[in-house]
Amino acid sequence: MVYYLFIRSIWGILMKKxxxxxxxxxxxxxxxxxxFINDDVRRNxxxxxxxxxxxxxxxxxxxxxxxxxxxxxxxxxKQIELLLNYYRHCSFGEETISDLDTAVNQKQRFRSLxxxxxxxxxxxxxxxxxxHENPMISLLYSIIEQxxxxxxFVNQRSLRKGFADVLSGLxxxxxxxxxxxxxxxxxxxxxxVKSTESIKKSLENxxxxxxxxxxxxxxVIVDELxxxxxxxxxxxxxxxxxxxxxxxxxxxxxxxxxQLIHTIKxxxxxxxxxxxxxxxxxxxxxxxxxxxxxxxxxxxxxxxQGHLYSQKLxxxxxxxxxxxxxxxxxxxxxxxxxxxxxxxxxFSEISFITRLFASIIWALKIRNDEKAQKFINGDLxxxxxxxxxxxxxxxxxxxxxxAKEDYDELEALCALYDFMFSSSASDSxxxxxxxxxxxxxxxxxxxxWI
Length: 450
Known about the structure:
CATH topology of the largest domain: Rossmann fold
Distance between the termini: 18 Å
Mean pLDDT: 78
Structural class: alpha/beta
Order of helices and strands: HHEHHHEHHHHEHEHHEHHHHHHHHEEH
CATH architecture of the largest domain: 3-Layer(aba) Sandwich
Number of helices: 21
Oligomer: single chain
Low-confidence stretches: 1-20, 149-154, 171-179, 188-197, 305-309
Helix content: 40-55%
Shape: elongated
Number of strands: 7
């Protein structure tokens, strides 16, 4: 259609800095604490249940936490990290974060939780390190880098000696390490590697330095593994399984299992049974349930301090398209921006067609860009019909404005779709309640893509 041949696509391009702010929250400590306090997406029960189960597991295990991309896995494991540190500090009579302490004391189940083990959690973003040649180097470096070795109860030089012994058994290319330099100089700690034996024993010595008398268990949280290079993802699974068998050390892998299976098949081949392969590694599997879209939308509206778009329409469209939390954020942001362009001054022809079609186009853009292009090309009328029949608030909105009495609303909606997106469209669309002409159509595409 000629109206959008000249319009540049902005999918994936940032808008003007003063037009929109990034809606997706970073998992900073402050925000992680706040989401726990407010329980905005109602995951505190799942969080507590997971910690209770974790505390009951004996031995060295590998656990998977499975959910789609963008479903909030990172926030969830960051909350696990936060609370495990909190309960450990409480156990040793150490200072805790005041806001978190207040929140826990206000939540009866969390306040009354009695753990038999104390944990030191280590968070490792595998995707941020998958440009490293050896995953164990990255992982062990994260353990020492995250601050636990800086606490007064850890003998730092002794710990570096243990790591030096471990790393001397790992190889990166043909580079050698000066072990004395590693032991005495933290700054040059991971400059290279030289081959040797007894890696497992050296690892036990390292864990002794961290764990002894200061916690019962170490929980290593490996996030974003499914996003990594296939060879890196496979190596980190195999190395952790084969090299780390300390009964005090547990691993939690935050993954999208479906995507991780694809990643493994890229490494071993399409005929490889990647699902059975993964089952060899994970002793326990947990699934993170989808968020309640109505509750999450309430949270977003509270953040933005206002309803810039129909709450019910966004909620039902996100449910219909089964959007993840990240996709929900993007969709909400787009609809908020579009609503700001058409204004909130009641009904107009432009606001009607924009709400009607932009809500579908941007949902499709997020979930299936090819279908979005088909819809814009006028070749996906069945999508419109399905939404009219299955998304209640959409049906109500159409029936309220598109026609009255003698008109069939669905037939009128399909005719409006043809007028808006068909290259052979007439000069205008008209019913007994509304008239849309070429000017309205041009304005719609201008608003849609600005």
